Every structure is written in structure tokens, then in C-alpha cells.
């Protein structure tokens, strides 16, 4: 099928983009590699930040300042200002689309505290905000005529003369490689925290597919070393214990039931404090026992159920064991707001670097960023596509992908790719996790180099072509290794500590490193890294303006 605009990803960013891009006469499709209702957005529990009164200049200014402060000076102020000023209209638009936010006693949208915020500005739907947003947006997208193409794994972009012409995809139900031509493409397929398998709130299939695709298309990635570890995941299962639990007054205590950190400090600070307790031999818990049963049942019902089902803990009367887990990737595809250096390609959501998060995302800003820049990406993609025709497809790329899939089916294998994925997660958490140093990062890269060679020889055990889950797992592993190398190399180059990036051998932040790192894959397995120069953003904006 041919579409005017293809959106890759069905989270808040992708859904907002598709809705904005759709008109009465064009064809817009959302492609997702799995179930439509399965996304990181749908799992986001705590809420979405916004100053609700557009006339509250002081409140909006505070939101901007809190957001920039959390970036550790790597934020792009113009992008932050755009997001925070757009926030009131986005909340109203979400309400118009059917989102029913919790209300206070006066019937206004209720707002709770979130880490790093100087005031209560986080709108919420209990502790299932993301799910409420995605369900409403799915209904809206369907009502305006967006097509949903599910269980379709994007393998690569096709392009001609630095213009995108479509996407190459693996269709899961029959294991065929298909091409979807498009006038413009929006990548909104999420982040790469799932690479930290076993230590992540993300589903295991969040392996940085968008980032690997971008690298292969010749684009730069930015800030890849910055991976945010959420302070509170269930100790047994890594299930996200929403920041809403602390926003509603939950305590963090150790085995002695001592509080040891400001629970509403920024996530990097709290995560490091928890890990230090664990490394010192303490267990760490979230304590909700001082909250009333009614408060827990009305404001934290999902957590109450998950704690009981997954950990056997009644949070009304018992402490809930937790650990820090990889949650969000600040790094992503280089862009100017949503525009990339490849004409007709736009990015939004967690796979992009719009400049609003820098070295450490402020809690409650991820859903907001997805909604704000998803909306913008949709508008930009529509504008671009309106005066463009379809370009020819480069079938050399298609043939390479067909051969790759055929190779995976060809032979038997004695290697366990699931074990490789688990070992990758262990290695990344141990050596490129909350605390890092040169020796550990070098060990991680050596192991990744080994894994890259091994992954190139993998074959599926099941040779059936119908709904073969092994093929996608192998393709995800290859993407994960490629992206993990970018993370490790960027972390090694940043010889300082800043935000979510903590180097034990370089504990201080350096003014000379007060800039982002860009990385490009020159050829397969060979990367080029450099710090952006002081005039980078001005030059970047000029470059993006000139190519359009």
C-alpha cells in the first residue's frame, strides 16, 4: 500500500503526529511492530506536566526553568519554551479528544507534585495516565481515518538524493519483506532503555530500532550516553513503581526504615542514592503505610494491584521492595525540533532529541514532549508532503533486507539468541548503567564487539514463516548491539559526570564538556564521535533551513 505519510510507532507521539497529519484527502498510516495498545506511553503512569492557565506567565516561566535546570545545561531553551508554552493547549486538546483527567474538589483538573518540579503541575488519571491518553488518541486517530498497520517491523528507510521515499518492513504474519512508499515519514518508535533487559521498565522489544535505522541512513545520534534510571522499579520484576507514589507522599526507606534521600529530587539523584544503599548491603523500600487506604485505592490503584500480584505485598500495611531500573533514553536522533537532515523525515517522542531533556529528563515531561512534538511533527510532515510526489524506491536496500531474512531462515543454529539478549542487558547495567568508569566501558565494548560477530551468524530454530517470533528477536538483537555500541562509546568519550551520566573516575562536571556528543556510523561497526561546537545549534538550524 502507498501512503502520503507513514508514522512509525503507536505511542502518544506517533498518535498525535498521525492525527495532525491526516486530512480528508490524504492517506496516513501508523505502523507498529506489535500490538497497537502496547507502547511505553501506555505504561507511563504518573502524569503529564502543564501549567493549565495560559495567562499564568509566572507559572509557565517556572516550568521552563525547572525543565532547563534538569537538563544540566544541555537543554535547548527555545525547544523547552515551545513545549512549556504549548502545554496548556495540548491538555485542552487531549480533553477534547476524550481524556478524562482526575478532578479536584472544585471540578478543575487535579495536579500532583513530581520530582524536580517547584510546584504541583502534573495532570493525571489515577496512576494510569499514559494508558488513558493512548486509548483516547487511538479512538481519535481511527475516527479521522488513520490506517493502522500492526505487527510490522521496520527494517530500514529508503531514500533518493537525500530525500526519504519510504520504509522497508518485515511483515510478521508471513515473514515477508515489504515496501511502503511515502512522501514523508515520521519516526516515533520509542527509546532504547529495553536494551538493559532485566533492569528496565521497558518491554524487551524497546531495543533502539529507530536509532539503528537512523544510523544506517547516515544520520547522527546525539546524547546517547544519557539513559535515565527510574528510582523505583519492583525489585523482583522491574515493574515501574510510578513517581506518583512519591508524588502522593510515599517515603523511600532502607532496611532500618530510615529515609535517606529527598524523594522528590531529580531522578538521577534519587536513583544513585538508592543504588548506593543497595551496594552497602541495604534493601530499599517504598513506604506507603502512612497513607490512607482510600488514598491508595483512588490514586494508586494500579500500583496496589501490581504489588500484590507481582510481589505479594499489600502496600497499605507492608513495605514494597524496589530497585532503580533503566526507564527512559534522553539520547536519540539529531533534529531541529522535529526536522532531520534527511528531507521528508521527521522524528518525535523518545527516539528524538528535541533538546528538552538534555542530560536528565524532568518527571512528567515525557508524555508532554511526545504530545507537543508529535503534534508538530504531524503538521511539518503534512506541510512537506502537500507539494511533493512519490520518489522511486531504491531496491538495492530492499534486496539486502530480503537476503538478511532469508539467511536467518537458511541454516540450523547452536547459539541461543535469547541468552545473548539477557547477557547484553547484564553487561550494559553492570558497565554502562548508573555508575560507569573507563575500565568497565571498555569491557562492555569488547563484549559488544563479540556479540556483533555472533549475531551475524544467527539463524532461527523454527523454520515456519507464519508468525515467526524468532526472526524479529534476532533483528532486534542486531539493532540493540548497534545502539549499545553508540551508548558505550559516547559514555567513554564524556569524561565527566553530568545528569544521568555518572563516571566514578570523573566525578565532576566540566565546563569544557558543557555540550552534546554526536555519533555517526561511518561504515558498519565503525563510529565517529565529536562534541558539538559552541555555534552548533545556530549552524544546525541554518543547515535544516537550507535543505528545505
Give a brief outline of the structure.
By secondary structure, this protein is of the alpha/beta class.
The end-to-end span amounts to 27 Å
What gross morphology would you assign?
globular
Task: Please state roughly what percent of the residues sit in beta strands, choosing from under 5%, 5-15%, 15-25%, 25-35%, 35-45% or over 45%.
Answer: 15-25%
The CATH homologous superfamily of the largest domain = FAD/NAD(P)-binding domain
Total DSSP helices: 16
In angstroms, what is the radius of gyration? 22 Å
Q: Work out the helicity level.
A: 25-40%
CATH topology of the largest domain: FAD/NAD(P)-binding domain
Counted up, domains total 3
* Chain-averaged pLDDT: 94
pLDDT < 50 stretches: none
Largest sheet: 7 strands, mixed
CATH class of the largest domain: Alpha Beta
The appropriate CATH architecture of the largest domain is: 3-Layer(bba) Sandwich
Query: Would you tell me the structural class of the helices and strands?
Result: alpha/beta
Report the count of strand segments. Answer: 19
Amino acid at each position: 500500500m502507498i501512503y502520503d505519510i507513514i508514522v512509525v510507532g503507536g505511542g502518544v507521539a506517533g498518535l498525535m503526529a498521525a492525527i495532525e497529519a491526516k486530512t480528508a484527502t490524504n492517506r496516513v498510516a501508523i505502523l507498529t511492530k506489535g500490538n497497537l495498545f502496547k507502547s511505553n506511553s501506555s505504561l507511563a503512569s504518573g502524569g503529564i506536566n502543564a501549567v493549565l492557565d495560559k495567562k499564568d506567565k509566572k507559572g509557565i516561566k517556572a516550568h521552563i526553568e525547572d525543565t532547563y535546570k534538569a537538563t544540566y545545561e544541555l537543554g535547548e531553551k527555545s525547544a523547552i519554551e515551545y513545549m512549556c508554552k504549548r502545554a496548556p493547549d495540548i491538555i485542552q486538546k487531549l480533553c477534547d479528544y476524550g481524556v478524562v483527567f482526575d478532578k479536584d474538589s472544585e471540578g478543575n483538573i487535579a495536579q500532583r507534585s513530581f520530582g524536580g518540579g517547584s510546584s504541583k503541575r502534573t495532570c493525571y488519571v489515577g496512576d494510569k495516565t499514559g494508558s488513558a491518553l493512548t486509548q483516547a488518541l487511538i479512538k481519535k486517530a481511527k475516527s479521522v481515518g488513520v490506517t493502522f498497520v500492526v505487527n510490522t517491523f521496520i527494517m530500514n528507510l529508503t531514500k533518493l538524493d537525500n530525500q526519504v521515499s519510504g520504509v522497508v518492513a518485515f511483515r510478521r504474519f508471513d515473514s515477508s519483506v515489504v515496501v511502503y512508499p511515502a512522501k514523508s515519514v515520521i519516526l516515533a518508535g520509542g527509546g532504547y532503555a529495553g536494551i538493559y533487559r532485566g533492569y528496565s521498565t521497558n518491554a524487551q522489544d524497546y531495543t533502539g530500532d529507530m536509532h539503528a535505522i537512523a544510523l544506517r541512513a547516515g544520520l547522527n545520534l546525539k546524547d546517547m550516553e544519557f539513559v535515565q534510571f527510574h528510582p523505583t522499579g519492583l525489585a523482583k520484576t522491574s515493574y515501574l513503581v510510578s513517581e506518583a507514589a512519591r508524588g502522593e507522599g510515599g517515603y523511600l526507606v532502607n532496611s532500618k526504615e530510615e529515609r535517606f534521600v529527598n524523594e522528590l529530587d531529580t531522578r538521577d539523584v534519587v536513583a544513585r542514592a538508592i543504588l548506593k544503599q543497595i551496594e552497602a548491603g541495604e534493601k530499599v523500600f517504598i513506604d506507603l503505610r502512612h497513607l490512607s487506604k482510600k488514598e491508595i485505592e483512588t490514586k494508586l490503584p494500579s500500583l496496589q494491584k501490581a504489588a500484590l500480584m507481582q510481589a505479594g505485598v499489600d502496600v497499605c500495611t507492608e513495605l514494597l521492595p524496589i530497585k532503580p531500573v533503566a526507564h527512559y533514553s534522553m539520547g536519540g536522533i539529531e533534529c531541529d525540533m522535529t526536522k532531520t537532515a534527511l528531507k521528508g523525515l521527521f522524528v518525535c517522542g523518545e527516539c528524538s532529541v528535541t533538546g528538552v531533556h538534555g542530560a536528565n529528563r524532568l518527571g512528567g515531561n515525557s508524555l508532554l514532549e511526545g504530545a507537543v512534538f508529535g503534534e508538530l511533527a504531524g503538521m511539518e510532515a503534512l506541510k512537506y508532503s502537500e507539494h511533493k510526489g512519490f520518489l522511486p524506491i531504491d531496491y538495492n536496500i530492499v534486496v539486502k533486507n530480503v537476503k538478511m531474512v532469508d539467511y536467518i531462515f537458511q541454516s540450523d543454529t547452536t547459539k541461543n539468541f535469547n541468552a545473548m539478549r539477557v547477557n547484553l542487558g547484564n553487561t550494559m547495567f553492570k558497565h554502562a548503567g548508573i555508575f560507569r568508569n573507563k575500565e568497565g566501558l571498555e569491557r562492555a565494548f569488547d563484549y559488544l564487539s563479540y556479540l556483533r560477530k555472533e549475531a551475524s551468524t544467527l539463524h532461527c530454530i523454527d523454520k515456519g514463516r507464519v508468525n515467526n517470533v524468532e526472526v524479529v528477536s534476532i533483528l532486534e538483537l542486531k539493532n540493540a548491539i548497534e545502539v549499545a555500541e553508540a551508548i558505550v562509546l559516547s559514555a567513554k568519550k564524556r569524561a565527566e559526570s553530568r545528569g544521568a551520566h555518572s563516571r566514578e573516575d570523573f566525578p565532576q562536571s566540566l565546563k569544557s564538556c558543557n555540550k552534546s556528543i554526536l555519533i555517526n556510523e561511518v561504515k558498519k561497526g565503525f563510529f565517529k564521535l565529536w562534541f558539538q561546537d559552541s555555534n552548533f545549534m545556530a549552524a544546525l538550524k541554518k543547515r535544516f533551513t537550507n535543505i528545505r
